[in-house]
Amino acid sequence: MEEIFGKDFANMLALLSYQDLQDEIVWLNSENRAADTRLRVDLEGRNPDDGLTGIPYDKGFFLLKLMEETIGREEWDNFLKTYFNTFKFKVMTTDSFLDYLDKELLSKNADWEKTIQPRKWIFEEGLPENCPKITSTKFETVESELAKWTNGGKASAINSSDWVTPQWLHFINLINDTLNQKQMSELDAAFAFTQSGNSEIKAAWFEKVIPNNYEGLGNTVEDFLVEVGRRKFLTPIYKALLKSEGGLPAALAIYEKARPNYHSVSSETMDKLLGYK
User: Fold this and answer.
1) What is the CATH classification number for the domain harbouring 141?
2) What CA–CA distance (Å, rounded) separates 39 from 184?
């Protein structure tokens, strides 16, 4: 993304990843699954699908980002190329990776191991204190524009003509969780979130307004859940439905229609979430 769209675009994606990671850790802790916030998850006697969370993607990304920042991009890129060429078409385990990392890279500089602490990232729960800190000037612009609306300005006056998807997602994520009908209608009239053709934006909007029983949704949530099968979208939206006025009965009514189209991995997760039998 940095190569194609520039560093600030990549930073926006990284910050969204960080927000997702924090939410995932909170959720797993609330489900008494703190052990699943480790990068090396213990799946002994468990369904392997239980390990399919956002943790390996987002926490794993920040570990690799920390390595790159500590070691330097040129040295890190050379290591990655050699690593992939050495192990292509072969099986790799966590222990083998760490042994290779120590021998071929970290042994070159004793301070790298102390700074990165890869075993803490891999074997311990939660997010280590040395997680890279990322900033984005484009996100700062979004925050400034949102503050104008929060302080009484009109949504239609928000200067968003050049915003791209990550900025819209950041905007929606930052909106107050408790919105009234007037506020939701104003935002929707200005930006057409409910009718967006972008699934990422639409899903983020649904997650925000469904618990507030937004009257302008119509059948769009049902249509979306019938058409889309990714757990990334399904899980937060069904959770939002459970918080809404209709609660579980409303979620189950949609799920009955949507379930036949879902992959077994998705339906298994939703069955557990909704208590579907």
Assistant:
1) 1.25.40.320
2) 38
pLDDT digits (tens, 9 = 90+) for 139-194: 999 999 999 999 999 999 999 999 999 999 999 999 999 999 999 999 999 999 99
* 8 Å CB contact between 217 and 209: yes
User: What is the Rg, in whole angstroms, of the alpha carbon atoms belonging to the chain?
Assistant: 21
Which helix (H) or strand (E) segment is 204 a member of? helix 199-209
* All residues at 6 or more sequence positions from 7 whose CB lies less than 8 Å from its CB, including other chains: none
Phi-psi region of 218 (alpha: psi -120 to 50; beta: other; left: phi over 0): left
Residue 216 lies in a domain: yes
Q: How many helices (H) and strands (E) does the chain have?
A: 15, 0
Range of the structural domain that residue 197 is part of:
137-274
Do residues 228 and 105 both lie within one domain?
no
pLDDT digits (tens, 9 = 90+) for 240-260: 999 999 899 999 999 999 999
Q: Compute the distance between CA of residue 261 and CA of residue 142 in angstroms, rounded to an integer.
A: 37
Cα separation, 193 vs 171, in Å, equals 12
Asked if residue 158 belongs to a domain, the reply is yes
